[in-house]
Design brief:
Layout (H helix, E strand, L loop, with lengths): L6 E2 L10 E2 L6 H9 L4 H7 L5 H15 L7
Antiparallel strand pairs: 1-2
Helix pairs in contact: 1-3
Length: 73
């Protein structure tokens, strides 16, 4: 499944930041919990409205945003 089916952006919600399925749970919220050391299961407990696929989509979204060419000097 593509992250595009789960990650939404709406200028009137959360300052236009990417959210999970139109909810007010931002992608960065999920990523911050993972970066803090929570497991996928712990993230789902912390944010019970999420589904496992939402966590995967947040990671795939972040990866897609970082996938750009790098110019070597």
């Amino acid at each position: 499944m593509s992250w595009k089916e789960r990650i939404t952006t709406n200028a009137g919600q959360c300052g236009g930041r990417p959210c999970i399925r139109g909810m007010r749970i931002r992608v960065i919220d999920v990523l911050d919990l993972l970066a803090a050391g929570l497991s996928r299961e712990e993230v789902l407990e912390e944010l019970p409205d999420l589904e496992a696929e939402d966590v995967d989509a947040a990671l795939r979204y972040a990866s897609s945003r970082l996938d750009h060419p790098v110019m070597a000097a």
